C-alpha cells in the first residue's frame, strides 16, 4: 500500500503541475524522452521493416527516464525531493535516492556512437551495406533522437564447406556436419556463426577432445561471389595446440567425500589411504560412506573416453544425493603414457549429518477462513552409510473465522510423517539405475494425521507408501508408488453434524471410513526449468488405482448393497486419471499470457459408488475459479440449500474440468497486475438423488461456471503475495436462460457486493 499511496500522491502532483518534469533542468538543457527508429528501404515489405526496427530499437543509449502507466513517476519523486537535498534520511531522502531517478539529459545523447552501434548490429545480421543517420529534435525543453536506417540487401549463405582430412579431430568434426546451424539460403548472421562454433566444440568435448575449445575454430566468409551471397569455410586454426587434437581417456578416479573448503590439511587430498572399489579410489579414512554409493552415482569409468556430458551429469548426480554442500572436480594429465589420459579427482564437502528446519506458513481462503501451520523437520543424512536420508516431520495448524457463517467452526490438525529415502532403485531381483544427471530415489513413507473440526467431527488418518522418484532430465520427472495405503477413521462425530449429514450426502462422505489400497504414477514435464525461449510448457499427468488386486478375491458390488470390508472399513475400488497442462507465452519483456487446462476423471466400480472423499475433485477458490467461494462449485448444476444448516459444506465430485487464462504484466517496482477468466465445474460419475443435476452428461457444457477478475501480485523474490478480486459471470445452478449474470452486476449495491465479490489472498501464483 505504501507504493500505491505514493503513486496517488505523485499523480496528483502531475495533474497540478504538468511541467514539473522540466522545471528543475539546468539552464540550456532538455529532457531526453527516448529514440525513434525509421526504417527506409523500398526493397522490403512493412512486416520485414518492422522486424528490422525491432532488432535495433533497444540498442540506443542512454535509456530515458522510466514510465509507470505513462507517467515518469520516479522523475517526479526526484524533483519533489529538491535538487539541493543530500541526505538519504526521511521521506524526501528516500524519494530522491531510493525511489527517485535523476533526469536523463539530451546532452548525454551521442547520435554518432548510436549510429555506429546500429550499423554494426545490422552488418552482423547480413546487412553489409547498411547506413544509419542520427538526428535530434528538441521542443519545449524535451528532446528525442531519431535514427533513419537504410538496411539495403541482406546477404544469404550460398555454400558451407568444412575443411576436412584424415586426422582424428577433423573426422570428429565431419561427424557433426549434418547438424550444422549454417544452412544454404539462410541469412548471414554472426550470432549463428558463434553458435555453430559452440555446437562443434560441445560435440568434440563429448568425443574426448578435452583440451579443445571453440576459439580453435574459424569461419572464413567470402562475400565477393556476387548476388548478395556468401560462401563459408569452416576450419581448424593452424596454430591449434597438439593437445587439443588428442582424444583423452579416463585413467584413475579419486573421490574425497570428506573434503573441507579452504583446506589446509594435506591429508584431505592425499591418495595414500584410498580404498579401491570397482575402479574407484575412495579416500574415506573414517569409513563414513559405503563405496557402492559412489559407484552408482559416477558415470565415468576407468579407460572410458572423456565426455563433457558425463562430466557435468556426474557432478549433478553427486549433488542430487543431498549429502554434499559443495561438489567440485579437476582433471590432471597422466605423464609418460602411450596415449593421452586424465586422472580425475572429486572433492565433496558434506552437509552436517543432522539438521532441524522449521517452517511457518500462513493461509487464507476465499470462504473467509484464515490460519497458520508450523512444520518442524529433522533430517539424518547418510543414515546407514549408503546415502540414505531419514526425514521426520511434525506439524500442527489451524483455520479459524471471526464472525460469518463459519464462526466457531474452527479446524485444528497435527501430524507426523517419516520418510526414508535410498539413492537407488530397490527392486526385488532386478538391478536398475539411470544414466542421466539425477540419482533415482526409493522412498518409504509412514504418516499419521489428526484432524478436528470443532462442532463437527474428528478424523484419524494413517498412510503408508513405497515407491520411486527419478528424473530423465531437469524437465522430466517420474514418480511411481506401487504400494500406497491410506486408512481414514472418523471419531467423535457430533450429533449436529450427524443430523445434517443424514440430509446431505457430501457431509456424509466426509465422515465415512476409507481404506485405499492401490498404486499411483505421475509424470511431470516442465520446460520452465530449462527453456530460454519466450514460451514455456508445463504438463503433469497422473494415474491412481485402488482395490484392483484385492478386488480379484471379492465378488461384492456396492450397487447391490453388498460391500466388502478390510479392518472393518470398506475398501475403495476406482481408477483415477488427471492431467494439468499449462502454456506460458511471453508477449513483452514483462508481460506473460498464462493458460491452464485441468481435466480429471475417476471411475468408481464394484466396491465403490464414488471416489473416496480424499481423492475427489473440488472447484472454486484461490487456485481454481476465483469468482466463487472455496470448494463451493457443483457438482454440475446442483446448489447446496444452505438454509438447512449453519455451515456450508465443501462440494466434491468424481470428474473435474477447468480452464484458466490470465494476462500478467509488471506495473512498477515489485508490483505486478493481472486480469483473468476462469471456467469449469465438477461432476459425479454416478447419479445421486440427493444431488440432482450433479451427474456428468453429454450436456456438461451447460454446467460450466465462469468468472472474471483482476489482481495484484507483490513479488519480493522469496515469495509472491497475491490479491485477486473475482466476479462471477455464469452461475450453473440458475435456471436455463438465466445462467449468465453479467446483467445483474450492481457495484453500488452492498448486498450484491457481499454475495458476489470474492477477494482471494494467497501466496504464489495460481498456476
From TrEMBL:
Q: Keyword Signal, does the record have it? A: yes
The record ties this protein, via PANTHER family, to: SORTING AND ASSEMBLY MACHINERY SAMM50 PROTEIN FAMILY MEMBER (PTHR12815), TRANSLOCATION AND ASSEMBLY MODULE SUBUNIT TAMA (PTHR12815:SF47)
Q: Which Pfam families match?
A: Omp85, POTRA
The POTRA domain, residue ranges: 173-239
PROSITE patterns associated with the record = PROKAR_LIPOPROTEIN
Q: What is this protein called?
A: BamA/TamA family outer membrane protein
For the keyword Membrane, the answer is yes
Residue span(s) of domain Bacterial surface antigen (D15)? 409-736
Q: Where is this protein localized, as stated in its record?
A: Membrane
Keywords in UniProt for this one?
A: Cell outer membrane, Membrane, Signal, Transmembrane
Which InterPro entries is this protein grouped with? Bac_surfAg_D15, BamA/TamA_POTRA, D15-like
Q: Which organism is it from?
A: Pinibacter soli
